[in-house]
Design goal:
Distance between the termini: 27 Å
Structural class: alpha+beta
Strand content: 25-35%
Number of helices: 3
Order of helices and strands: EHEEEHEHEEEE
Oligomer: single chain
Radius of gyration: 16 Å
Shape: globular
Length: 140
């Protein structure tokens, strides 16, 4: 069975600014799916975010585009390999033009997360988790 892929589609006001933000965080784009209307942000071999200019995004929906500066359309969570990597990515996002979203979340010694908003106000959460240390009552 082939691994499923995820493509999260997000509208952006300024595609070049969005690409610059994510590049500063150390991510790359798949040139095969990147042009003047869209950029394919690569998180892994199977997880991508399609950053679409707002006019192009409107081709895929009959609904209005959410004003993400005033409403939350989604919170996209990314895993990190350690607590230090959570801080590293969140700090880099804030230093690269992102803005704070929520306070850091501590869940004992098994989970830690921080969140930020990208320049288009989409909410991102970076999470580290050690499932082996997770209390049994939270595993069901």
């Amino acid at each position: 069975m082939t691994a499923q892929m995820i493509f999260v589609n997000l509208p952006v006001k300024d595609l070049e600014a969005a690409k610059a933000f994510w590049t500063k965080l150390g991510f790359s784009f798949n040139p095969q799916f990147t042009d003047e209307n869209a950029a394919c942000l690569v998180f892994s071999d199977t997880i991508f975010a399609m950053l679409l200019t707002e006019p192009y995004f409107k081709n895929f929906t009959k609904k209005e585009i959410a004003d993400s500066s005033a409403t939350t359309e989604a919170i996209v969570a990314l895993s990190a390999e350690s607590r230090a990597k959570v801080d590293e990515l969140a700090d880099a996002a804030l230093a690269s033009g992102g803005s704070p979203a929520n306070e850091p979340q501590e869940y004992g010694d098994f989970m830690y997360s921080r969140s930020f908003q990208d320049p288009d106000h989409h909410m991102w959460e970076v999470v580290w988790m050690d499932v082996a240390k997770m209390p049994e009552e939270t595993q069901s």
